Amino acid sequence: MNLSRLPAVRREQDPDAPAVTDDVSGQLSNAAFDDLIEGYARHFADRGVGRGDVVAVRLANRAELVVVMFAAWRLGAAITPVNPALTGVETSYQLVDSRAKIVVVEARSAELPGTVTALTLQELAGPAPDAGLPVLPADPGSGLDDLALVIYTSGTTGRPKGVELLHRNIDAMTAAMVDGMKLTEADHSLLVLPLFHVNGIVISILSPLRAGGQATIVGRFSAKEFFAAVEKARPTFFSGVPAIYAMLANLPPEVRPDTSSLRFVVCGAAPMPPQLIGLVERRFGVRLIEGYGLSEATCASTTNPLDGVRKPGTVGLPLADQTVAIMDEDGRLVTDGSAGEVVVSGPTVMRGYLNRPEETARTIRDGWLHTGDVGRLDEDGYLVLVDRVKDMIIRGGENIYPKEIETVLHDHPAVLEAAVVGRSDQVMGEVPVAFVSLRDGAELSPAEIPEFLGSRLAAYKIPADVVVVPEVPKNSVGKIDKPALRRRLLASVR
């Protein structure tokens, strides 16, 4: 099913039922939701947006972001959500790289590139132009091979890459989530994860809407205020990351929220310690379902079953229509339970990286998506993650690639070499730590580095610590020895 038709279908079936709610717009019925989508689509069409174009949206979590997505889809265009925490330089890169035709923002900014037309929410709230809209196809399978989402994920080259997800991918993913989570029209998600991530879009918005349910969007996560939102909205599920659950578990013991509306809660983005899973389940009386996936596979590839055996310490079984396997360095599938690279195949695998055919060819080979993660399958077929091939750091659910930080560090005139590795953190899971060596005669205080990076990188990418060393260690072939740096960090906390 091409989900661009979903709002119109919901309106036809039950116009007064709730669709999306937030603290700004309040509750939008199916009819009101569809009206907003049509108005936005007319504004976009008036600016020349059509089939095959890309619409960027740079907004904090709010209902209008979802409206923008469906309005773009209504015209046959795709969207690329932009993290509002990115700097002007980072935002401009994404807008130019995606060839966005327009960008929806709360307010105009001089930092935006002149090649992209900016539309504010205030302008979109005005009278809709009398621009013609394409007729929605009667065939639910029409347009499945059209581009739907371009999700940017930082890469090992230091340049973020646009993951191309088709409507076919979104259809397969949402169908699997509706089936796996047994979603119905009675279900209600509470969105707490950011909507510039595929997890927030697919798990917390599209899947419940497809099932006939509803979604409530909250703003910035606050552990102190979160359960008040749960008690007010009465959702049946929400999706979080380990850092969120760690902060909730660390609330004062007198905090005893009413969680009786929740059928289950979901954790993704990074492996969750079994001890924390048990603590969350016991303290809050919820069933926690842990899964695994990545943007390149449209969010999720495995999950512990809602009904049946859940194995803490694993990330569960493959979702419907996906194959998850382990491959050795020679490209052979591993069947004896030993570790290797996790590979995925199926209808949720991305089309590729936007305008990067070589990187696409390295990542998708012979129909297998190479995740860069190391894992093994236990005797029951549950996936156990062992390590990451890549150096990615996950800080509170945010993916950070050290190479991107290192590239910017090398722009400092005093820096000769730079290496960034992750350090374990009880709350955030991991935080980046930078090691830098200086050019001869140069002087640089570690305290100056965050200020230098602050105008070039989003706040969550700024290293928690900077260590100035005489020389960044190398291995026998002259490459920077990151394992040695990790051992040094580990030894320093013992």
What does this molecule look like?
- With 494 residues, this protein is α/β, with parallel strands linked by helices.
- It has helices spanning 6-13, 30-46, 63-74, 88-98, 121-124, 167-180, 198-210, 223-233, 242-249, 274-284, 357-363, 402-409, 448-454, 482-492; strands at 18-22, 26-29, 54-58, 78-81, 102-105, 117-120, 147-153, 161-166, 188-191, 214-217, 237-240, 265-267, 288-292, 302-303, 317-318, 323-327, 340-345, 352-353, 364-365, 368-377, 383-388, 393-395, 398-400, 415-425, 429-438, 465-468.
- The radius of gyration is 23 Å and the shape is globular.
- The mean pLDDT is 91.
Kindly state the mean pLDDT as a whole number? 91
The low-confidence parts are none
Q: What percent of residues are in strands? A: 25-35%
Oligomer: single chain
Helix content: 25-40%
The general outline is globular
Q: Distance between the terminal alpha carbons, to the nearest Å?
A: 54 Å
Task: Count up the helices.
Answer: 14
Report the C-alpha radius of gyration, rounded.
23 Å
Overall SS class? alpha/beta
- Major sheet: order of its strands? 2-1-10-9-11-12-13-14-15
Number of E strands:
26
The largest pleated sheet is described as: 9 strands, mixed
Which structural traits does this protein have?
single chain, 494 residues, alpha/beta, nine-stranded mixed beta sheet, five-stranded antiparallel beta sheet, 29% helix
Summarize it.
The protein is α/β, with parallel strands linked by helices. It has helices at 6-13, 30-46, 63-74, 88-98, 121-124, 167-180, 198-210, 223-233, 242-249, 274-284, 357-363, 402-409, 448-454, 482-492; strands at residues 18-22, 26-29, 54-58, 78-81, 102-105, 117-120, 147-153, 161-166, 188-191, 214-217, 237-240, 265-267, 288-292, 302-303, 317-318, 323-327, 340-345, 352-353, 364-365, 368-377, 383-388, 393-395, 398-400, 415-425, 429-438, 465-468.
